[in-house]
Design brief:
This protein has about 250 residues and is an alpha/beta fold. It folds into 2 domains: about 5-150, NAD(P)-binding Rossmann-like Domain (Rossmann fold), CATH 3.40.50; about 155-250, ProC-like, C-terminal domain (N-(1-d-carboxylethyl)-l-norvaline Dehydrogenase, domain 2, Orthogonal Bundle), CATH 1.10.1040. The protein has 10 helices and 8 strands. An 8-stranded mixed sheet has the order 3-2-1-4-5-6-7-8. Helix 2 (about 35-45) links the parallel strand 2 and strand 3 (about 50). Helix 1 runs parallel beside helix 2 and helix 9 (about 220-230) runs antiparallel to helix 10. The longest helix is centred in the last third of the chain and has 31 residues, at about 155-185. The chain is elongated, with a radius of gyration of 22 Å. It starts with a strand and ends with a helix. The relative contact order is 0.09. InterPro entries: 6-PGluconate_DH-like_C_sf (IPR008927), DUF2520 (IPR018931), NAD(P)-bd_dom_sf (IPR036291), P5C_Rdtase_cat_N (IPR028939), TM1727-like_C_sf (IPR037108). This is Pyrroline-5-carboxylate reductase.
């Protein structure tokens, strides 16, 4: 089974490392960013290439690129009998041109190049054009992770939406908190135990049951005091989230 990975960003970097750590060889990693490809090569030893004219023949092509580049990249794949799988959370497999064996291999995780991950613990969600073919792709994915599941397009889109709230928006709030600390010469590390406990306790409690803070108490003096210290977009976000919490927990 020959596999080519297309892409040179964070997802491609970690997929390459996952293949490497699980002793699954890639015949080629193809991308446009030579410097990023060199970084992947240094971490895995897999062959790299920036020239589409030199794309290797393979049984499986995994397209790990930006959503709006999936179709363009897939169109360039010469082996029309191959499997072509993209890794996006909110894109249909139909973005891959007809004729290929089409599907999705979606890893539900946040990827940063300099953060080590346990790939066996990452959930991978599989969808194929022909549902009876899903088991084959799931078997391939099980080479990378012990948590491989089938998810149709709607389920995958909802998972991605949930992930945006749980991860991307949350990280943005961490950034706003860090900005407040920096503006007041307070080490952001002071908040680490609070952040870790907030995440840890939802392993045993529903997030709704774990909510604390002035909004759930409807503590208007504290809320007004904090609003008065904020300006611009952070103030708008504080106001919106406070109203959302009060609305959710009002009796």
């Amino acid at each position: 089974m020959k596999i080519v990975l297309i892409g040179s960003g964070n997802v491609a970097y970690h997929l390459a490392k996952a293949f490497h750590q699980n002793d699954v060889p890639l015949v080629q990693i193809l991308g446009r960013n030579h410097e990023a490809l060199e970084e992947i090569h240094a971490a895995t030893g897999f062959p790299i290439c920036t020239d589409w004219e030199k794309i290797e023949n393979a049984d499986i092509y995994i397209v790990a690129v930006k959503d709006n580049a999936i179709q363009e990249c897939a169109q360039k794949i010469p082996n029309k009998k191959a499997w072509v799988l993209h890794t996006a959370g909110s894109v249909s497999y139909q973005e891959i041109p007809e004729g290929f064996q089409r599907g999705v291999l979606y890893p539900l995780q946040t990827f940063s190049k300099r953060k080590t991950l346990n790939y066996q613990e990452i959930p991978f969600f599989v969808e194929t054009e022909k549902q009876e073919e899903a088991e084959r792709v799931m078997q391939w994915a099980s080479l990378l992770s012990s948590k491989v599941m089938y998810a149709d397009e709607n389920t995958r889109r909802q998972l991605h939406l949930s992930a945006v709230f749980a991860c991307n928006f949350t990280n943005h709030l961490f950034t706003l908190a860090e900005n407040i600390c920096q503006q007041n010469n307070i080490p952001f590390e002071y908040l680490h135990p609070l952040i870790f406990e907030t995440v840890d306790k939802i392993k045993t409690l529903s997030p709704k049951d774990a909510q604390t803070g002035p909004a759930i108490r409807n503590d208007m003096p504290v809320i007004e005091q904090q609003l008065n210290t904020l300006t611009g977009r952070p103030k708008e976000i504080y106001q919106l989230l406070t109203e959302s919490i009060i609305e959710m927990y009002k009796s």
